[in-house]
Amino acid sequence: MKAKLEQLGIIISYSRPAVSNDNAFSESLFGSMKTRKQYPRQEFKDIEETREWVLSFVYWYNNEHRHSGIKYVTPAQRHQGIDGNILAKRKEVYRVAKLTFPERWNT
Description:
By secondary structure, the protein is mainly α. Helix content is 54%, strand content 0%. Among the domains are: 23-65, no CATH class; 77-107.
């Protein structure tokens, strides 16, 4: 098993359970999942229901949820390389607003 994982370029992790510093990205993802309003409060009835929910979460997380760590664009926008255009448009809106309403800024 170890050899196959290495052949596939998968890094084996020996992180400790419930220690967020060992696996911060996974812990963060699970936190996002469990605090989502749509997270089921009861057990899934079967594996198919589980799969459906996880697939819908992954779609939302990658295509709709704007992440603070990547300047409030979606991972899909970042992956597709369109985040630069989105951020440039935001910057321009901010620049025009600052010129139009300078009293709103303390500079």
